[in-house]
Amino acid sequence: MMRADKKAANKRAVTSTPTDLIQVLIRELTDAASAVRTATHRIDGYGLAANSNYLEKCQVDTPPEIVKRVWEIVRKYRTKSKNVFDAGAGDGRFSVGGVYDQYIGYELDSKRIPIAPLPENATILRACAFAQALPKAFDLAIGNPPYVRHHDLSDTWRERISKWIKEQTGVTPNGWSNAYLYFLWLALITTKNDGLVAYLVPFDWVTRPAARTLREFIANNEWQLDIYRFDTEPFPGVLTTACIVIVDKQKKRKSIQYYRLPDNGDAVRIDNPTLSSNPPLEYVRKDADVYAQRGFSSGDQTVFLLTESQRLHHGLEIGEDVVAAVSSLREVSLENSNLTEAFFKRNFVDAGESCWLVRPTDTPSKSLMSYLNDVGGRCKNNSTCSKRAVWWKYELPVAPRILYASGFRGPRPKLMLNTIGAIAVGSVCGIYTPTAVKASHVLKSLLATELQTKVVALSRGFTKIEVNQMNGLLRSIIA
User: Fold this and answer.
1) Residue 405, strand partner residues
2) How far apart are CA 12 and CA 443, in angstroms?
3) What Å distances lie between residue 388 and 9, 293, 385, 391, CA to CA?
């Protein structure tokens, strides 16, 4: 691009064409009274603009052909939109391909240079979309909002944004929401009573508990909700299946309609998000007798989980300083369904897996204390460790009778009877039963159950069963 063209594109990133809405927004950004506004009117995203880690996680550009596909779907609902809203606009690529009077994109990352040429009726503002949002101001909200896990969102940002959303809707978002769900709330707030939302988000939001309040909010308003799942993943490097979410406030419907989006051709209506005749497994709270529980979170697995060579190097004793643990079943070939001493030694100890979990006590051995002093610096910024009275001191969990991997490919997760009493850690979850006989019965039933068609796949055949989905399945087994 010529130097003059670059200057013109950058100018359009911070100025506007003379429409009433743009002028209002520019005044919002430059108002001399901004210093005395409430905290929700900051333009730095509560520090996100200075958080390079957050901004790096956000920047996954949408392929041009997918942008085109989103606009094709939008035209099925609206032939033209007056004012278009794009939060987390990146380089403004959603400004291309649509029919509208005015496009306004918000982008905090100053490193993102607008596409060339940016349409004359398009503007990108260097501001926080939440801080400058005007409720019910836009006819269409479109885009690919940032996907950032809730762990990476600051408490300050989450609390203030949640408070603002409740002020606007009367509903408080789930505290475990990932960033894109907050942006979906924002889109619903900023669109008019007859507006349209077209967002590219992970498909699993259709069943995730963290999105339940959002789904219920849409259902309670009886807005039409259509979800288009891509047959071919548009983001090859991202472990998630994408979909286009359409919320049409102009039309009333209580139920959700699902569609498949083939690479070529029109969308195909499907009955269930599992792509089968089975609805997704329900999320059920655990039973007091037989239940599943997620793997133990020690705080930092690189510190609290050791390989056999690390254990020997630091002189840590099995049973006194460390105990057997399983944090992954990915490389394990289950020739049998029992985690015996011999199986554990061959597939974990001798294979160099991190399979020894630190066993904290009130009086740790000299060797263990020496090890903890050596590695303690690696935990200084870990939130789990920092919340403990003593950063390394946790209560060792009870070993489950059955171990299973939460993520899987194929008909079901890998499952094993936990004969040696290893601790389930991380993505390896546990099933607890009162007796070994009951555990054998549960395992036999699970090994005979096809789960792949009862759970929404994350990506490319990779499926994850959530703990409370497993609890629902267990309840049906023992009923």
Assistant:
1) 428
2) 62
3) 51, 22, 6, 5
The amino acid present at 415, given as its one-letter code, is L
64: preceding bond cis by omega (within 30 degrees): no
pLDDT in tens, 238-257: 657 889 999 999 999 988 99
Q: CA dist 177 to 16, 241, 267, 285, 373, Å?
A: 33, 17, 29, 19, 36
Average pLDDT of the chain to the nearest whole number: 85
Structure tokens given for 447: 């090994």
**Residue 194 in tokens:** 């007859």
> Which residue has tokens 């049906």?
476
Decide: 157 and 40 in contact? Cβ < 8 Å. no
CA 238 to chain centre: 11
User: For residue 117, is the peptide bond before it cis, meaning its omega torsion is within 30 degrees of 0?
Assistant: yes
Which residues, 6+ apart, have CB-to-CB distance to 329 below 8 Å? 403, 404, 405, 414, 416, 428
Give the residue among 174, 152, 148, 151 at the shortest CA–CA distance from 161. 174
**What does each C-alpha distance from 129 to 70, 145, 423 come to in angstroms?**
21, 11, 44
Confidence (pLDDT) at 21: 61
Q: Which residues are 100's β-sheet partners?
A: 81
Amino acid in the structure at residue 90? G
Confidence (pTM): 0.76
Contact by Cβ (8 Å): 227, 205: no
